[in-house]
Design a protein that fits this description.
CATH topology of one domain in chain B: Rna Polymerase Sigma Factor, Chain: A
Strand content of chain A: under 5%
CATH architecture of one domain in chain B: Orthogonal Bundle
CATH class of one domain in chain B: Mainly Alpha
Distance between the termini of chain B: 39 Å
Number of helices of chain A: 10
Largest interface: A-B, 38 and 46 residues
Strand content of chain B: under 5%
Shape of chain B: globular
Number of domains of chain A: 2
Distance between the termini of chain A: 116 Å
Oligomer: heterodimer
Radius of gyration of chain B: 17 Å
CATH superfamily of one domain in chain B: RNA polymerase sigma factor, region 2, helix turn helix motif
Structural class of chain A: mainly alpha
Number of helices of chain B: 9
Number of strands of chain A: 0
Chain lengths: ~160, ~180
């Protein structure tokens, strides 16, 4: 081989001593029949290795059917990545809202939400709110009060009724 | 390197039903060359045997991932080089020794090794190699012992050809200086 001569010529130029030494045996010895035993030992070990049916797409040859790709690792890796992306999006969209998002809600939307979820609020929350002031400013017509009492008389206990009257 | 034999090995190992047959061919062609490459780095036969077995099992497990972008033997040498360096670093950490102690220890082991029968000059050469920085030692070993062209060494070690030439020349000069001084 030409490059072997090139290596020897280069070395002769750099160090004649090393060039001469390169021709001599290096002195390393291997046990007798080592390579035969090694082959057999390795073949025994690989027989115990789990069998893999996956085929890399880059190794697909023309003789392999088109559907071999369906069993490739890349396809499974792609599907797994897509699933991870979906889960991440789910958690991102379902994160609890923060103050900034609340500031973007209009007062009409807030009123509508409260009216529909009134049962979920504790009454004490209203004590500090402006709503209480607004309620005090409302002027109730006496006929409306009577009508309300008539409609809800069965649901009011005696103490509440006494307080209202 | 016989590329048609490599193509045959690859087509067999990538066929699930003929994988073992292909791997046996790979062993026949490369196990001895890989052994010598590792032996020149770790020196001791028993250590070489351990590293080589790990290398061959790793090759078997990963050869289906080999895409053929590099030549097969380049890929094999790269695995063997990485495993050898990992082994040497682990050994150094385990023994918690300095570079000088490592050099003296390995050189003494070499003299006492029943599987080493080198002349005094060859022992000296190994002692000089032990004192080289890792990169220079690898480049020197692949060119001087394995007789590989710079292009191939560049692919194995992933170092530019210019950098390799400089490393090799430095290594040769340092070894020669070691001989002159001792």
């Amino acid at each position: 081989m030409e490059y072997k001569k090139e290596i020897q010529d280069e070395l002769s130029e750099l160090s004649p001593l090393l060039a001469k030494m390169r021709q001599e045996p290096a002195g390393f010895i291997v046990p007798e029949n080592y390579f035969d035993y090694l082959s057999e030992s390795i073949m025994e070990q690989v027989k115990l290795e789990p069998k893999s049916d996956f085929v890399e797409p880059s190794n697909l040859s023309v003789s392999q059917p088109w559907y071999a790709f369906l069993f490739s690792r890349s396809l499974f890796a792609g599907l797994a990545s897509f699933a991870v992306l979906l889960v991440a999006m789910f958690f991102l969209l379902n994160q609890p809202s923060n103050g900034n998002e609340l500031a973007e809600i209009s007062s009409e939307e807030a009123e509508y939400y409260i009216a529909n979820h009134l049962d979920e609020f504790e009454l004490t929350l209203f004590l500090d709110s402006d709503l209480l002031g607004e309620i005090n400013e409302i002027e109730f017509d006496e006929n409306e009060i009577n009508q309300f009492l008539e409609d809800n008389i069965d649901e009011l206990d005696a103490a509440t009724l006494e307080q209202l009257l | 390197m016989n590329e048609s034999a490599d193509t045959q090995i690859l087509s067999l190992v990538q066929n699930p039903t003929r994988r073992e047959e292909g791997f046996r061919l790979l062993l026949q062609k490369y196990q001895e060359r890989l052994y010598w490459h590792i032996r020149r780095l770790v020196l001791d036969h028993e250590d070489t045997n351990d590293v080589l077995q790990n290398v061959l099992i790793k090759i078997y497990r990963n050869i289906q991932k080999f895409e053929g972008k590099a030549q097969l033997y380049t890929w094999l040498y790269r695995i063997a080089t990485n495993e050898s360096l990992t082994f040497l670093n682990k050994k150094k950490k385990k023994l918690a020794i300095s570079l000088d102690e490592e050099v003296v220890g390995l050189a003494n082991n070499l003299v006492a090794d029943e599987y080493f029968d080198g002349a005094q000059a060859q022992i000296k050469l190994q002692q000089a190699l032990l004192r080289l920085p890792e990169k220079q030692k690898l480049v020197f070993s692949l060119r001087y012992f394995e007789g590989l062209p710079y292009e191939e060494i560049s692919k194995i070690l992933e170092i530019s050809k210019g950098g390799l030439k400089a490393s090799y020349h430095h290594a040769v000069k340092k070894i020669e200086q070691f001989f002159k001084n001792s």
